[in-house]
Amino acid sequence: MSLARYTGRKSLEAIAASADDHGQGLTKSLGPFSLVGLGIGCIIGAGIFVLTGKAAANYAGPAIALSFILSGVACAFVGLCYAELAAMIPASGSAYTYAYATVGEIFAWVIGWDLILEYGMGAATVAVGWSGYFVSLLGSFGVHVPAQWAAATGEAVQLADGRSATAILNLPAVAVVLVLTGLLMAGTKESTRINNIMVAFKLFVVGVVIVVGAFFAKGANWTPFIPQNTGTFGAFGWSGILRGSSVVFFAYIGFDAVSTAAQEAHRPQRDMPIGILGSLTICTILYVAMALVMTGMVPYQKLGVADPVAVAIDATGITWLSVLVKFAALAGLTTVIFVLLFGQARILFSIAQDRLLPALFSTVHPRFRTPFASQALIGVVVALIAAAFPIGLLGEMVSIGTLFAFLLVCLAVIHLRRSQPRANRPFRTPGAPWVPVLGIAFSLLLMCGLPLATWVRLVVWLAIGLVIYFGYGHRHSVVVPQAAAE
């Protein structure tokens, strides 16, 4: 069988024609403000409210601020590559679509399957975290959710009367996923307005915490700024900064989700670079400032808890701010789930348009103009995963899946610059090919900071994807047979 059967490419003209199909396509309802809001909505969440404290306590100490800078620099190189491709190829699908236009179908499938893992597991992970904050907040008002209905299926829990029990499912996590799925199915414009309101609220609270916390920071808590390594790789010292960077990289997942909305942007050639680079810049600055303030307010050893921001604020004695932080954490985690569900449905929609998955999932609702079938499937699957699995297991594979996608996006920019040098590029990555090369190098560096078991799980997931591709996808592709004939 000809190699072209698996490596045929989708032309830039065909992608553009599909994106401009107003009769059957998605509604162009997003401007630069909404795109920046999508990015910030996904980026600012678990990173500030959960991961900062754990990474500081276990890996980097006060130097967790340097870990955020390292991850931010890596994302900046990759973000510039995303901006070029999103403006050049204004269609849903993110890295999947870019790979289809550059390296061919089988590679596009691999990256699409990887993105399904990244977004699905990411949304489920954050939903479980949301459940923890929600139960805690209700408890502060005297409302107690039974433990067996707020933990992973089969997990041992302790009831209010001290008895031990086995958890049935995580009901709050299921509820938040299904509610957000319903909003997304009802319309992109309406749901992004709600997202923008929550983003504005959590940005306000983060700003208040940074300003107030700066007055309570103590220089002694920053000494030593880089704790001495314990003799184990990743346990403080410079290797701890690297390990911390690999861990908090989860916090940067979000700017790439902006690229999944390219087909719904008013002026994608202008708006996509603003959305991607704007959200990334704002969030990196806030992450570094928040990390410095938190490690300055309390010793970093005390931050290894599920709610490190609340611990830091409690040290100030300002009780009203602690409650406000919990509300902001809920809003922050809600917007992360929202954007991940949004992005994953668009990726599934794009794959189904090429018939690598059943055509049902490329259906657009006649009234709401949203990919309702793919959105519904994603919502149900993510809700089931969030109901049954613990947060640690869910979060293990998200970072490596994201870094793998980033690496391929940088390769796509280099390939397109060589294969189609005269193609229209409304935004050009500066310093090419060195910026894409640096994006690849940083992605590989952060991947090396992850444990071997994570790599094994990624290989197993990709192997399952290839079975599906050879068993169904390549038999139904509407793109590759044309390329093979040519």
What does this structure look like?
- The structure is a single chain.
- With 486 residues, the chain is mostly helical.
- The chain has a single domain (4-485), classed as Amino acid/polyamine transporter I, CATH 1.20.1740.10.
- The chain is built from 20 helices and two strands.
- It has helices at residues 4-7, 12-19, 32-43, 46-60, 64-88, 95-102, 105-140, 171-186, 188-216, 237-248, 255-258, 268-297, 308-314, 319-353, 372-388, 391-395, 398-419, 434-448, 452-476, 480-485, and strands spanning 156-158, 164-166.
- The chain has a two-stranded antiparallel ribbon.
- Helix 3 (32-43) packs across helix 14 and helix 7 crosses helix 15.
Secondary-structure-derived class? mainly alpha
Q: Indicate the CATH class.
A: Mainly Alpha
Give the overall pLDDT as a whole number.
81
Give the biggest sheet: 2 strands, antiparallel
CATH architecture: Up-down Bundle
The count of domains is 1
SSE topology:
Blueprint: H1 4-7, H2 12-19, H3 32-43, H4 46-60, H5 64-88, H6 95-102, H7 105-140, E1 156-158, E2 164-166, H8 171-186, H9 188-216, H10 237-248, H11 255-258, H12 268-297, H13 308-314, H14 319-353, H15 372-388, H16 391-395, H17 398-419, H18 434-448, H19 452-476, H20 480-485
Antiparallel strand pairs: 1-2
Helix pairs in contact: 3-9, 3-12, 3-14, 4-10, 4-12, 5-10, 5-12, 5-17, 5-18, 6-7, 6-17, 7-8, 7-14, 7-15, 7-17, 7-19, 8-14, 8-15, 9-12, 9-14, 13-14, 14-15, 17-18
